[in-house]
Design brief:
12 helices
């Protein structure tokens, strides 16, 4: 099939192809300038933002090791049937961990040796064959307590001196993207409006505030709701494999950057559907008949916009499927087809 010419592509538009490119260049420059300003502002608040970003991960790690401590105490067995029990009951341990945010390491010692060391009279005991024997049955369990906040396992590490600076810059960029999102969306919809007819441009100014609201809603839902479930799943998967997590802040920050922005962009779906329906690109019948294809595309897009774990994918794909059918209902609610589609249908009928 021959490629249509530029005149064919834009014969129903109010702008030529060159004018579209010039308008796109202008909008991109303005959006980039606004983003640069907000990123500079982000440097002034990047430090508390880094601590805010760390909080969900610290909380998830704290819950993970608190649960693990309780399970460790519950699974502990004395080395002999009449061996010494734990120095605390299970209820005391649970109360210390859950109510007082304490954690512990379970160790075993020889109490007589410990007393001898303290008194300065430690001595090796000869074994049956004249060698020094280690008596495992005489070991007594000891719990070494510390506040959970001081547990090195819940700290988030960096592996190089320059990594902290890179984290600071990324946090400033994250703040800049969120603060600049209204301006960026304004430039995007300005570019769209420039190529529309007058009666179609009113939809742009209606959609702009809704678009900004949907983006910010997606960002906040991802950060304050989805992160907890995803982190719990990932840490439990570590436990299932028998691996102790040792997260780096730079890797976590990359995770934080991808998911909220992916959710914010994904939440634009019903608005994009309504806009395309209003200007006559699609209609309700097309949306309804192709819903299976739309669900497949949503799942693929969710896999691209989120990290590689099933929880992230499902937490984005399921709301997007709901939003897709919400978009169909929104198109039905607006009712009559737009003027461009009516004109196209009349032209087709006359032929």
């Amino acid at each position: 099939m021959p490629r249509p010419s530029d005149d064919d592509l834009f014969q129903t538009s109010t702008m030529t192809f060159g004018e579209h490119l010039e308008e796109l260049r202008t909008c991109l420059i303005r959006a980039a300038a606004g983003l640069a300003v907000t990123v500079l502002l982000g440097f002034f608040v990047a430090r508390p933002v880094v601590h805010l970003i760390e909080e969900p991960l610290r909380h998830a790690l704290g819950d993970y090791y608190s649960k693990r401590a309780i399970e460790t105490a519950a699974d502990w067995k004395a080395r002999t049937p009449d061996g010494p029990p734990l120095p605390y009951s299970q209820d005391e341990i649970r109360d210390a961990v859950e109510r007082h945010s304490m954690t512990f390491e379970l160790r075993e010692v020889h109490p007589d040796r410990l007393a001898a060391v303290i008194g300065g009279t430690a001595a090796a005991q000869p074994g049956p064959s004249g060698t020094t024997a280690f008596d495992t049955h005489a070991l007594v369990p000891v719990l070494l307590w510390q506040p959970l906040s001081r547990d090195p396992r819940v700290s988030i590490t960096t592996l190089s001196a320059q990594e902290a600076f890179a984290i600071y810059v990324k946090a400033a960029m994250l703040v800049g993207v969120v603060l600049a999102s209204p301006w960026i969306f304004y430039q995007l919809w300005t570019f769209v409006a420039a190529g529309l007819y007058v009666h179609e441009r009113k939809w742009v100014w209606t959609f702009l505030p809704i678009s900004i609201g949907l983006f910010l809603a997606g960002v906040f839902i991802a950060f304050f709701f989805v992160f907890d479930f995803v982190l719990d799943y990932l840490l439990q998967f570590n436990a299932w494999l028998g691996l102790d997590p040792d997260p780096r802040i730079s890797e976590w920050l990359g995770f934080v950057l991808i998911m909220p922005i992916g959710f914010g962009l994904g939440f634009q779906l019903p608005l994009v559907m309504l806009f395309l329906e209003r200007i006559g690109v699609f209609d309700v019948a097309a949306y309804t008949s192709q819903w299976r294809t739309a669900v497949l595309v949503i799942v693929i897009a969710s896999a691209i916009l989120t990290p590689a774990d099933p929880y992230s994918l499902l937490f984005l794909a399921i709301p997007l499927c709901v939003l897709y059918f919400g978009g169909v209902a929104l198109c039905r609610w607006f009712g009559d087809p737009p003027p461009r589609r009516v004109a196209a249908q009349a032209t087709k009928a006359s032929q």
